[in-house]
Each structure stands twice: as C-alpha cells, then as structure tokens.
Design a protein that fits this description.
Order of helices and strands: HHEEHHHHHH
CATH topology: Serine Threonine Protein Phosphatase 5, Tetratricopeptide repeat
Structural class: mainly alpha
Radius of gyration: 19 Å
Number of helices: 8
Shape: globular
Strand order of the largest sheet: 1-2
Oligomer: single chain
CATH architecture: Alpha Horseshoe
Number of strands: 2
CATH superfamily: Tetratricopeptide repeat domain
CATH class: Mainly Alpha
Largest sheet: 2 strands, antiparallel
Strand content: under 5%
C-alpha cells in the first residue's frame, strides 16, 4: 500500500512540475509579446510570474534568453534601474554569453551614474551581438542564418556605435538611444525569424 501512495505522490509531483514549467514558458512568451508591443508593465508582471515559477527557464533556440534576462530588461524599461542591475547581474551569472542582458546591464549602469562600467558592458554586449549575428549569417547562411538581419541594419548600427566608442568621443544620449533600439531590434528580429520559420 505504501508503494501505491509513493507512486501516486511521485506522479502528482511530476505532473505539477510539468504544469508549472508550461505555465512559466507561457508567461515568458506572453511577456515577450507585451514587451514587443511596448506594454512594459504587463510584461514586467508576466516575467515576475515566470521568475517565481522557474528562475532558470531559458527561452528560444537561436537567441537564448533566460527569464531573468527578460525580467531585468523590463525593469530597465520601466525605470527601475537598481532592481534591473541586480537582476541582470544574476542573469549573467547564469548565462555569461547573454549579450542582450550585458547590453542592458551597461545601459542600466550608465543610468545609475557608472559611465565607465556602463560603457564596458555596452561595448561588450554590442560586440557580442554583432559577433553572434555574423556567426549565424556566415555558418548557417543556407539554412536559418539567411533570415537574421538580412539587411545588415543591426550590424551596421553596431559597427557605427563601436567606432564611436573606440574614438573616445562618446555621444552618450545617442549611444543610449542606439543601445535601447538595438535591444528591442534584436528581439523583433527573433520574432520575425520565428514567423518566417513557421510559414515554411
């Protein structure tokens, strides 16, 4: 009889865990949609819910972003810079190669008054995104790589910003605006990529 109870309890635990994972994934997907629509408060709530369910959840296949990355980006976009810094640092401790989180950490640090650390992270984030796009476009150009930044707009903008950073003539308002545009642009590019793949 104890074996039956054990198996029933184990089955229930597995079922509840699977339901939580599905709900967390759904929250992240809905949060991304709200983020892309500019509804940052709704996105924030959805990402907070997903974080409560599974803070280690990772969304996406090509451009992978953890729930903490999305939460931190949304905290930045809602002006909660102190919390965004903590969340983005935690996201990067889990996924060091999350260049979008690194970009937003740089933007956040700038907003908090730390220009030096902000610039370092903005530069590393932009370079990482550019390198990733170049890798995808070069190594997978006959497959899914051909659908990422097809016009080269994102990489061109990054190249211009990196040249400005290298010149040490930093136009901070322009750099921050470009960084914010890049952060949303790469997310929109992923959405475009997903739409293209679903049509095939």
């Amino acid at each position: 009889m104890k074996t039956v109870y054990f198996i029933a309890a184990l089955s229930l635990t597995i079922l509840l865990g699977a339901c939580a994972t599905i709900r967390g994934a759904g929250d992240v997907d809905q949060g991304r949609q709200a983020l892309l629509e500019g509804n940052y408060q709704r996105a924030l709530g959805l990402f907070q819910d997903a974080d409560q369910i599974d803070p280690t959840y990772v969304y996406g296949t090509e451009l992978r972003g953890g729930v903490l990355s999305y939460l931190g980006r949304t905290q930045y976009l809602t002006g909660n810079y102190t919390q965004a810094r903590q969340t983005l640092e935690k996201a990067l401790s889990q996924h060091k190669s999350d260049n979008v989180a690194r970009l937003y950490l740089g933007l956040t640090l700038y907003r908090l008054g730390d220009q030096k650390a902000g610039l370092t992270n903005i530069q590393r984030g932009m370079q990482g995104i550019s390198d990733w796009l170049e890798y995808i476009n070069t190594n997978f150009r006959f497959e899914f790589g051909k659908d990422w930044d097809t016009s080269g707009t994102i990489r061109g903008s990054i190249k211009s910003d990196l040249a400005m950073i290298s010149s040490s003539q930093i136009n901070w308002p322009g750099l921050v605006a470009d960084g914010e545009r890049l952060g949303m642009g790469i997310e929109q590019e992923e959405e475009y990529f997903r739409d293209e793949r679903s049509r095939r």
